[in-house]
Each structure stands twice: as C-alpha cells, then as structure tokens.
Design brief:
735 residues; ABC transporter involved in vitamin B12 uptake, BtuC; disordered N terminus
C-alpha cells in the first residue's frame, strides 16, 4: 500500500507543527484544538526543569536577601550610601570567611559550634603576638591562622578519627577555648589594651583598602574562589560531598572518611583565625564578649543561604548569600536603635525558620521534582493502520520471523544494533559497555573488540574503517580498526532558550556517515537518561534533535531541534538525504543535506502502526526499518489527553504508568516514495519480542534488540547474496 506522498514540512515550527500531518485525516473538536494550543504555548516543563537545577536551592535565600535589601533601603537612611556600603563590606569579609569555613564542615556532614570562641582566640592572639612578642604583620597572620587551625585539627581528630559526636565535641571545645581566651585576656590585659601599631600595612588592611576595596573583601574573594574550585573541580571536594551525602557509602568506595572529615575542621579553624586577624586590624581591641553568640549568626548565614544541615549539599555562593543577609540585618537592627538583644532575637528566629525550610525542602524536593518534571504534551496520531491478518493492509501480521537462526543466544545483553566490516565480521554492542566482534563465517567465535564503558547503540563504519558508535549517556565514540577507543563528541550547541543545559549529550541513539565524512546522529531526548528513555514516550514532546559531527574540523552542530524521539538514521542511496525516524510520532522523515533542496525537511511515512527505530539500506535500493513496538488504541487516545497523562505521572507509581508497547517485533521495507513494500513479523514474540535494528548482509537479514539476549539471522529470498553495507557506502571496498 502506498502511503501519503512525501509532503514538505515547510515553515511550520517544531515537532508539534510537523505532527499536524499525522492527525490531519481526523476532525478535531474545538475543545481538543484549545488543548493543543494550550500545551503548545504554555511551557509546563519549565517548572520541572527549574526544580532540577542545582541553583534552585539558592532561590529562598536569594529572595530573602532581596527582601532584606528592600526593607533596609526603605527604613534606614543612607542605606545605599558609599560609607554604609564600605562598612558592610568590611564586616561581610570577616563574617563570610567563617561562614565558608562552617559550610565546608557542614558539607561533610558535621557542625562546628566552637567557631565563635576560635574567632575570639584569633582576635586576642593577634594582639598578644604583636604587643608582647613583637611579631610583625606577616608572621602574626600566619601564626594566628595556624593556631586556630590547630583548634580545628583537635576537633577533626576527635570527630573524624575517634568518631565522637560533632555537636557535643565542638560544644565542649567552645567552652575550653573561651576559658583559654578569658585567662589569657586577664594575664595580658594591659598589653592588649595598647592596640596595634599605627600606620603602614596595619592601617591599610584594617581601615584602608586596595583601589577602594577593603582588604577583608579581597581576602574573602580569594578564599571564596579557591574553596569553590576545590569543592566543584577537585577530587578533594568530590570526596567531601560524598562523605556528607553518606559516610558509609563513601567508605565503601574507598574514600578516607576520617581524613576528609578532619581536614574540613582544619579549614574551618584556619578561616576563623584569618577572620579574627582581620577583625583585630580593623578594631585593634579585644574583649571578653568578642565572638559571643557568633556561632548563631554564622549558622544562620549558612543555613539561610541554602546549605543543608544534613550534609552533602552546599556551595560558596549559598554561604555568601546568607552572610550578606545576616550582615544587613545585624547592622539594620543597630542603626534602628532597637533594644539590646533584638539582633540575637531576630537572628534566632530567622535560624529557626531557615532550619524548618531546609528540613522540609530536603524531605520533599525529590517528590516535588518527580511530580513536576514529567510534562506530557499533546500528540494526535492518525488512525492506526490495520495489522489484522487477511485485511489487505501492507502491515498485516505474518510469522515470517518464526524460523530465525539465533547467534550468541545467552551470551549477549542488549545488542541494540548490528553491523559488518569488510571481512564479514559481525559487530554489536551490549549493556556491559563492550563492542563484541563475532568472526565470520559461522559467527560462533567472539571477542571483545573494544570496551567503551557505556551501552553502544547505533553504529556505522567510515571510509577508513573506523567504527562510530552512539553510546547512551556518553555521546558519539570512534573505534579504530585496532580497537582504540576515541571520543568523537559529547556536546553540541545549546538551545537558545533552554533552561537545562542541553549542550551535553544524554541519549545519542543512531548514526550514519555522509560521503564527505560528516557523521549525522540522533539524540533521542535531552531530558532523560538512557535508563528512563521510555518516560519520554509518556511526554511525547519534541525533546530530541539531529546532530552533525565533522571529523575534519572536529566541530559539532545541531541540525534539527524539537524532534519527537528521533531514532534511526540512514543515508539515502543517492547520498543527498538523511532518513530518520521519530519514534513516538510513528513517522519517518527525510532531510536533504545536499543538492538544490538542501535544508528541506519532509515526511516520508507519517502514520506507521508502530514506533520506528533503526533504518538501514536494503540491497535492492530500498530501506529496512525496525518497529520496536506497536501502537495501542489506549495510548493513542491518551496522547491526545496530556492532562490525563500528567495526573497519571503524579498520582501513580512509575511501574504502573501507561507506556508504549515495546514487546512485539516487526521489520518494514519501504522505498524513497514512502511505499511499504514488505513486512516481517514474529507473530508469537518468541525469537525477537523487541526489534530495534536490522542489517542486510549477503542475502541475510540480521536482527538486534535492545532488550534481547541474542542476534537473529533470516535468509532473504531474491536478495543479492554479494551485497554488503560497507561496499554500498564506500564502493572501493569489497566484502
């Protein structure tokens, strides 16, 4: 039966517009039209994508900061003056340094209540070293940082190695260090009362600055950048995050948990010392109340910014956001002339609120994300073609795959695609991350040709004999004839208005190579990983794209966006077009890459009875296409009811969702005009319950399936027994 003639998709925007062809044969009610418009214009998925961003944890703290600035600017005179800004900046530098130190400890799953006493120790020690022992500026700074770091080391040894409870240990250390400060203050009260030397570097650091920027602010910037790099870009930072997330799991994977915990307390102690030193250069005094209650202000800053009390989640940015809010609130209370203790009352109240928000957020974030991320769209497919035996339909069920020979039965897991080299050897990938080579002629002997690490999916040979493979979750890889694995590309240009960063490949699927060497490959979805690929079928939005990699320039560009799970990719016999499948749209398209129609996209078959997967050439000038599953009336109806699918995703467990049927194997042969010429079924779903690929080679059709544990081989009648794919592409090679 001949399908609708190939129709240009024209200037219609996105996959939603291209889907109009598949639903054009039915009259759509006004209500359904409004639903279609609503789901096309309103970006529901933006909510879920925002929830998935790491920086969403900063949202509450940032909004609170904006509120503090707005209120302070309204009720406090000269709040935005340069003098007030400079004063706040100096205090921010001192407070935020300690906040960053406490954040490091909390990321590792700990807490440090001794920071106020350690800060006071740094303050007093600076005066004693200068006035009693005559130390200079650099020597004093280093000594103070090291001594306070030693206090952190004691905390770290007790908590990390002796496994004492952090809360009680640091509470005891708060008392011990505070008494040491009080005793030392009494012993050297006269000497410390003289303050620091006047002039020179002391005044420059304490009350001056560099290019108008306070020294404490510069120190904060340097420390903030360094800690951010360590946390986000180094193994030490990753280990700390892993320890905070789960100490048992971190230990099981070989991380030295005691050392990691201990070092976090050392860093916190050193930053307390640096802050105490800068505080002393500014005020040149010490007192019994220095640092008293500071732990409340610092803890409020860290938690208010969005750092988790439970560990494993935190950042420098969050600590800075909270610190700015706390500095403004503290100074605002003073400038408003409120009664003594009002500042502590306000900070304590905010801390209680921040802790409550943190606990509830951590508890419910994943649940909220799960309910909001899956965002079904409107998809209207045409009337499903009949597959009933004897119906006269070209898709009528038969049992021609019943006697398929089996290769590698029980030896393979997930051979999604199959391909042959010039020596007739058979290659396939499996979910363990290997590309397996079966040797001709009987395909009994096998070896691991290459280990990639991810699941190899679609494959294609280039002119030089390099094997390109799409690897789920990793991108496009190249394997040389000697088995050397090379990354071709794992990123492309980011979509202009995308909330999530879709420049990285999530699900590269199938590929083919043009005469000029460019590799065209599909990325099925930019929203889901390989293990969740079927969820994209529940959405049925235009989440995929067609990408081109040029090995000559090592550049990658996105050719087409907003495709509905683009899957199989095949270069036409004339080399001018790329055929590719859109699985959930039940459609095969053609994209012109050369000739006078270059850049034109059109539908070839727009209403298949199932979900098309890999496409490959046939020896007679036509094409084979695997249908990985068949459409069902229930799902076809549900595709026109996005509200129903949304409620299902929110209220029902994922294993009970209405998914596409992917348990029936079928292979279709078609020509360039979209005429269906032949169909092969496994009616009893015995040999190949799911077929994702097929490859014709020397009179046989070889079958692969991503959920199968074998490769099938079927003898084709009237096929060219000398024809092979690699010679079809690169004529000078003979099989």
């Amino acid at each position: 039966m001949k399908s609708a003639k190939a129709q240009p998709l024209g200037l219609m925007e996105g996959a939603e517009a291209r889907g109009a062809a598949s639903g054009g044969s039915e009259r759509i009610s006004l209500g359904e039209t409004l639903v279609k418009i609503r789901y096309r214009l309103i970006p529901d998925r933006a909510v879920g994508e925002l929830m998935s961003k790491n920086w969403i944890d900063n949202a509450v703290g940032f909004l609170f900061l904006i509120l503090v600035i707005a209120v302070s600017g309204t009720v406090i005179n000269d709040f935005f003056s340069a003098e007030n800004f400079s004063n706040n900046a100096r205090q921010l530098g001192e407070l935020a340094l300690i906040a960053i130190g406490l954040m490091v400890v909390m990321v590792g799953g700990g807490i440090d209540l001794s920071i106020g006493s350690n800060f006071a120790l740094g303050n007093l020690l600076t005066l004693v070293l200068v006035n009693v022992f005559g130390f200079g500026f650099p020597t004093t700074a280093i000594a103070v940082v090291l001594v306070c770091g030693f206090v952190g080391l004691i905390n770290g040894l007790l908590i990390g190695y002796l496994k004492l409870r952090a809360f009680l240990t640091t509470l005891a250390m708060l008392i011990v260090v505070r008494e040491i400060v009080n005793i030392t203050l009494l012993a050297f009260s006269a000497e410390t009362a003289t303050g620091l030397p006047i002039g020179g570097i002391w005044d420059l650091v304490g009350t001056g600055g560099f290019f108008g920027i306070p020294a404490s602010t510069i120190a904060l910037a340097v420390v903030a950048v360094a800690v951010h790099i360590v946390l986000s870009r180094t193994r030490v930072g990753w280990h700390l995050l892993a320890v905070g997330g789960s100490r048992r799991s971190a230990h099981n994977i070989g991380i030295n948990v005691p050392r990691t915990v201990c070092m976090s307390y050392v860093v916190c102690g050193m930053l307390c010392g640096l802050s105490g030193f800068l505080y002393t250069t500014r005020l040149s005094s010490a007192g019994a109340n220095t640092g008293v209650g500071l732990e409340v202000a610092i803890l409020t800053a860290v938690v208010l910014g969005g750092n988790s009390l439970g560990g494993g989640r935190g950042s420098v940015a969050k600590a800075l956001i909270g610190s700015i809010s706390v500095v403004m609130i503290t100074n605002g209370v003073v400038r408003l002339g409120l009664v003594s203790g009002a500042g502590s009352l306000v900070l304590g109240s905010i801390l209680l609120l921040a802790v409550a928000v943190d606990i509830r957020w951590v508890k419910h974030k994943d649940r909220l994300l799960a309910k909001s991320y899956v965002s079904p769209g409107y998809r209207a497919l045409g009337p499903m073609p009949s597959t009933a035996p004897g119906s006269g339909s070209p898709y009528a069920v038969n049992d021609r795959l019943a006697n398929v020979e089996l290769i590698g039965l029980g030896e393979l897991e997930g051979p999604e695609d199959v391909i042959f080299d010039a020596d007739d050897n058979l290659y396939t990938g499996e979910r363990h991350g290997d590309i397996i080579r079966y040797f001709a002629p009987d395909y009994r002997r096998r070896e691991v040709f290459a280990h990639i690490g991810g699941h190899p999916l679609g494959m294609a040979f280039d002119k030089a004999g390099n094997l390109y493979s799409c690897v789920g979750g990793m991108g496009l890889y190249r394997v040389t004839p000697k088995g050397v694995v090379e990354l071709a590309t794992d990123e492309t240009s980011r979509s202009p208005f995308s909330i999530i960063d879709d420049s990285r490949m999530r699900l590269a699927d199938d590929c083919d190579i043009a005469p000029d060497g460019k590799v065209y490959f599909s990325e099925a979805t930019v929203r889901y990983e390989l293990q969740d690929w079927a969820v994209d079928g529940l959405e049925s939005r235009g989440n995929g794209r067609l990408v081109c990699y040029d090995p000559n320039t090592e550049s990658t560009e996105t050719v087409l966006r907003n495709l509905v799970f683009p899957n199989g990719v095949c270069l036409s016999h004339d080399g001018q077009t790329i055929l590719f499948a859109e699985s959930w749209a039940a459609r095969i398209n053609r994209y012109w890459i050369s000739g006078p129609r270059a850049g034109v996209l059109e539908a070839v078959i727009d209403n298949l009875p199932g979900y098309p997967d890999n496409i490959n050439r046939a020896s007679d000038g036509n094409y084979w296409c695997a249908l990985m599953g068949m459409r069902t009336p229930a799902l076809d109806i549900a595709m026109r009811m996005p509200g129903f699918r949304r409620r299902m995703a929110r209220r029902i467990a994922p294993d009970e969702w209405l998914y596409p049927n992917i348990n029936t194997g079928c292979v279709v042969k078609f020509n360039d005009q979209g005429e269906v010429l032949d169909v092969l079924w496994d009616a009893h779903a015995v040999n190949h319950p799911m077929i994702t690929s097929m490859r014709e080679h020397k009179g046989y059709l070889y079958l692969g399936g991503v959920t199968n544990n074998r490769i099938g081989r079927l003898k084709l009648e009237h096929a060219d027994t000398a024809w092979c794919g690699i010679a079809s592409y690169w004529g000078e090679k003979r099989c």
